[in-house]
Structure to design on (542 residues):
């Protein structure tokens, strides 16, 4: 006798629902009961067999973009096996579902579009965004990652094709920290694009007009936030890949109106500061002993500088003293108080009057010991710059954080070779191990994946009213605390990605405890916060 699945679905509707579909793992009894008898091959598979079959096929594909497309198709068919594969081998699959492969995926998104994996809110939806959000089949959305596609990685304005970023980010929320996938929703805000190539591309999937600006843009964002608050009460918004001229402003305007954060600003800051904490601790030095130079004075670079100053305040410095240890170089050169073209954010780090120096001159004149890149200008950390860093300090800290790999300010091989093997290196995209002078050095990837999924799990557990910057400082310290001296001696400043799920639990527990300690949590504090957090984590089982 045919009955409905607990989801209320049966037949092809059940097989087409990725949350509930088990594919060939449906038992013979289930096939009879749910009206899918004959709709599947005769074999009854275990999840282990399904996983092996799919992994073998992925391994046979020639290019990472082909693997990305196949995994996207799997995500649309069977969420349990998709996450079973990602969770089982995050080192192999994270670079495929997110950076660096996601950059190419976004560039080709129109050609590879298959079926909706999120919501596209366009200018045509003004005045009816709540209706659009209610069309999503899951009513209890707890996390939204949203982009307007204007600054996708280091690739620029990709318009609606930037949807690949929210999809990838939320996949890592689940794969790394176990945030239940049905509680997440990717959103692309399609407000136009200024990318002429896309505007002239007949296969472009977005609104073929130039971007709206000014008050019209602000009103669009405001309606979006208010609609989310109404349709999904208590939902957290992660702002992603907004242009510098919008990112910080949107974060500050809405962070106290709705629980939200910007991963490009705060997540990048958390992972960057964690790496610096590890490097200075293992060198036997303090944060305040360094001179910092940020190449790239946008939201990411300034976000790292701001959180770093917060960390130095914990070491006893005043905010002003901390800021005086940080310098910025933008497209016009060193940021100094003599310049008249500075934003308020840059003015915080315009430490003294003087001429506008080049990056190379600034490294030499300031005696820089820590160099961080968020410029997306490949090759900008040149041999003379890195050689000068090695003269400034015995162990220069060199973090080219721009991604994808093609946008990195230097490679690991360049940093190690040009510094005579002295560099402490971390990058935004992965680089292979490098042998120098008979020693194998393992480059660290300063990937935000160490921070944002754990933040999501902590938020899911504690349900805070807001997410202060201090939460990211707590995350940075917890992550840094996992790196031993032995790990550091091999070149790493982050826990190995093979332990990413363990590190996510450690960071999520520390942040959840901060939410409870600070009075921001809206649920009762459990006796064991770690166990409470772990209990919220999704398990990819049928």
């Amino acid at each position: 006798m045919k009955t409905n699945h607990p989801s209320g679905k049966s037949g092809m509707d059940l097989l087409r629902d990725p949350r509930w579909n088990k594919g060939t793992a449906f038992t013979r009894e289930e096939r009879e009961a749910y009206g899918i008898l004959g709709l599947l091959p005769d074999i009854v598979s275990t999840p282990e067999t399904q996983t092996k079959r799919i992994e073998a096929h992925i391994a046979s594909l020639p290019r990472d973009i082909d693997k990305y497309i196949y995994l996207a198709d799997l995500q649309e068919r069977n969420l349990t096996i998709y996450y079973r594969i990602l969770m089982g081998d995050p080192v192999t699959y994270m670079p495929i579902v997110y950076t660096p492969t996601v950059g190419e995926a976004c560039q080709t998104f129109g050609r590879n579009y298959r079926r909706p994996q999120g919501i596209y809110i366009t200018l045509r939806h003004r005045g009816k965004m709540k209706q659009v959000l209610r069309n999503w089949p899951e009513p209890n959305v707890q996390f939204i990652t949203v982009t307007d596609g204007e600054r996708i990685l280091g690739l620029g304005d990709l318009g609606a094709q930037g949807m690949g970023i929210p999809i990838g980010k939320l996949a890592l929320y689940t794969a790394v920290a176990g945030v239940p996938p049905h509680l997440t929703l990717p959103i692309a805000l399609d407000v136009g694009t200024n990318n002429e190539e896309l505007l002239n591309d007949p296969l472009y999937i977005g609104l073929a007009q130039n971007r709206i600006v000014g008050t019209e843009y602000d009103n669009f964002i405001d309606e979006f936030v208010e609609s989310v608050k109404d349709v999904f009460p208590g939902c957290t918004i992660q702002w992603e890949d907004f242009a510098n001229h919008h990112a910080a402003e949107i974060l500050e305007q809405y962070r106290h109106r709705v629980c939200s954060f910007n991963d490009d600003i705060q997540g990048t800051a958390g992972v960057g500061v964690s790496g610096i904490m590890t490097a200075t601790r293992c060198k036997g030095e303090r944060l305040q002993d360094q001179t910092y130079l940020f190449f790239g004075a946008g939201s990411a670079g300034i976000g790292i500088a701001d959180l770093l100053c917060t960390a130095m305040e914990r070491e006893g410095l005043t905010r002003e003293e901390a800021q005086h240890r940080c310098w910025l170089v933008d497209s016009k050169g060193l940021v100094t108080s003599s310049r008249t073209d500075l934003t308020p954010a840059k003015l915080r780090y315009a430490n003294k009057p003087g001429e506008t120096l080049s990056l190379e001159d600034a490294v030499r004149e300031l005696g820089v010991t820590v160099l961080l890149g968020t410029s997306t200008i490949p090759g900008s950390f040149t041999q003379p710059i890195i050689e000068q860093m090695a003269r400034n300090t015995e162990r220069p800290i060199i973090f080219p954080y721009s991604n994808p790999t093609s946008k990195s300010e230097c490679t690991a091989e360049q940093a190690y070779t040009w510094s005579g093997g002295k560099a402490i290196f971390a990058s935004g995209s992965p680089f292979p191990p490098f042998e120098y002078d008979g020693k194998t050095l393992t480059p660290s990837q300063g990937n935000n994946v160490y921070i944002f999924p754990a933040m999501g799990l902590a938020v899911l557990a504690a349900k805070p009213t807001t997410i202060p910057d201090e939460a990211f400082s707590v995350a940075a310290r917890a992550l840094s605390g996992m790196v031993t001296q032995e790990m550091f001696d091999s070149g790493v400043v982050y826990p190995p990605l093979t332990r990413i799920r363990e590190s996510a639990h450690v960071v999520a527990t520390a942040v959840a405890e901060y939410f409870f300690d600070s009075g921001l949590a809206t649920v009762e504090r459990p006796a064991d916060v770690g166990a409470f957090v772990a209990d919220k984590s999704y398990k990819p089982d049928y």
Remarks:
- The mean pLDDT is 95.
- DSSP finds 25 helices and 14 strands in the chain.
- Residues 266-449 form a domain with the Rossmann fold fold (CATH 3.40.50.720).
- The chain has four domains: 11-89, 97-258, 266-449, 455-535.
